[in-house]
Design a protein that fits this description.
The protein is an alpha/beta fold and 523 residues long. Helices cover 47% and strands 20% of the residues. It contains 13 helices and 17 strands. Strand 3, helix 3 and strand 4 form a beta-alpha-beta unit. The two termini are 94 Å apart. This is histidine kinase.
Amino acid sequence: MILIVDDRPENILPLKKILELHSFSVDSAESGEEALKKVLKTNYAVIILDVQMPGMDGFEVANAIAGFSKARDTSIIFLSAVNTEKKFITKGYTSGGVDYLTKPVDPDILVLKVKTLHRLYKQQQELKETHTSLQKEIEVRKQAQEEIAGRMQELQSVLASLPQMAFTIAPDGRIEYVNEHWFQYSVDSTTFPQTHADDDVCPEWENYLKNGIEFTREIRLKELTTGDYRYHLLRILPIKKQGVPVRWVGTFTDIHPQKLAADLLEQKVEARTKELLIKNLELERSNHELQQFTWVVSHDLKEPLRKIQILNDLIKEKYLTGNVEATSYLDRSINSSARMSTLINDLLAYSQLSTPALFQPTDLNSLLQEILADFEDVISRSKAVITVDPLPVLDTIPGRIRQVFQNLISNALKFSKKETAPVIHIRAELIEEKEVDSKPSSAGRFCRIVVSDNGIGFDEKFMDRIFVIFQRLTDRASYEGTGIGLAIAKKNMDKHNGLITARSRVNEGSQFILILPVHQVNE
């Protein structure tokens, strides 16, 4: 803004109009006192000041303005129609004016001078703002440097207290600081410790330094006092600011005892593994021999047993007709031979469960129809009622899952109540989890199959015994059996990665529950 100071309004008006035509904002004052009040409140770029004024003349006003820090950059142009002598012009310059014009004034010259001085004022203000901004930035940077220095001092204090070798690295890869443990492996603070010839990591580290990535390696360092190489874990972490590494912090952790222990343990594990492999081969060979022995023994036992049964039948038919007592003794012998034959068959089946077999999709409906056909005579004689709900197709080992259902149905028919026809019901549903009480789910990964009967049942406190080989809950005189059937079922369910359990009460029947995966993976 431009301030025109003149005690005569007729002199102010033409100057104001001329300057306003050149897009200047113009203010005016009609006395020196009024001018000083306005200067205190408003910033002016140029003041056009009349010399001859009543009260304070122009020189006095200029001297007063020169004392205002607010008007330090304001340029003053003196205008005078009377005081045109050299001494007055000199006084105008010494009192703070930058120009001295005499009236009448050439308007164009005045406008050019005002423009120049106005431009200088703007440049000075911009320079001031720039200077202020630079001062603020310097202060901010100074504070930042002080803060960084403080943090660096804290970091160095922490690193000095570590039991490990610790150091910091500048962004250019230069080592900045090392703690006292460094000098056990290096002669000075700028030389990296000597590593084993096979553990040179410098080329690799340079790549991590460029990309700002954490670097971790196991290396061997040469100890200065002994000359021995010791294993260390090297870790160098970047400290980033706005995603850019401003410093790196590294540590060497002595892992020599752990490394030696790990190597020793690895050697022991390797030796133990070899021993286990040898033992495993011996076990496999023994198992194979045992299977062969079981097969041969069962075959050799079955052959004379078959002859005993045939001869007993011949003696009974030819020589003991009418001899009730002898026939009774012979029937006991025949029944004992039959039980022996069943026991041999069950033992042979149990011994063969350890042989590997492949899973394949199995239609349980067809499989159960075949099993029920095998039991047709027993079902007819006992007048049993067996109902089977639709069953899914599962991945099973058909021969072994057949044994499971055969044993469960056989037991349900065998352990029925006297004078009561057996009633057996088989149902299935898909479930979510491999749990007996899991919720049904149409997309379940497991299948729950329940085989229920109305037989004699058992007390559930004996649950842990019924799946153990040769364990019986009934006496041999009342119910036949070898005590192997449910043990075979349990082992077969284990082979299927499944579960088998039971729920029962005495004289209230039993429920045998099978949990099988829908899909299996052949090893």
